[in-house]
Amino acid sequence: MEDVLKIKLSIANRVYPLTITPSQEEGLRLAAKKIETMINKFEQSYSVRDKQDVLAMCALQFASQVEQKALDKDHVEEHVQQKLETLNELLQSHLSL
Questions:
Q1: pTM, whole model, 2 decimals?
Q2: Which residues pair with 10 in a beta bridge?
Q3: Would you call 93 helix, strand, or coil by DSSP?
Q4: In this model, does residue 54 exceed pLDDT 80?
């Protein structure tokens, strides 16, 4: 079993203690840093009443990025599939000559 690591991450002026594997640490710290950066941007750009509003906006932003990447990936896969089918048909036609 992999060793566990106890870390504390600060997000929106709150500290969250976590027990993680060492391989997760870098990703979690980067994610917390991105959240803090986004919180600061939203607070500077918009009039917000409390941290809950800013955190909801951050969650929406990150979730939409994940969804958009999935949609883009599906589109690329469809495009590649079409190209492969066209290439296969071309090869088949030349091989049957």
A1: 0.70
A2: 15
A3: helix
A4: yes
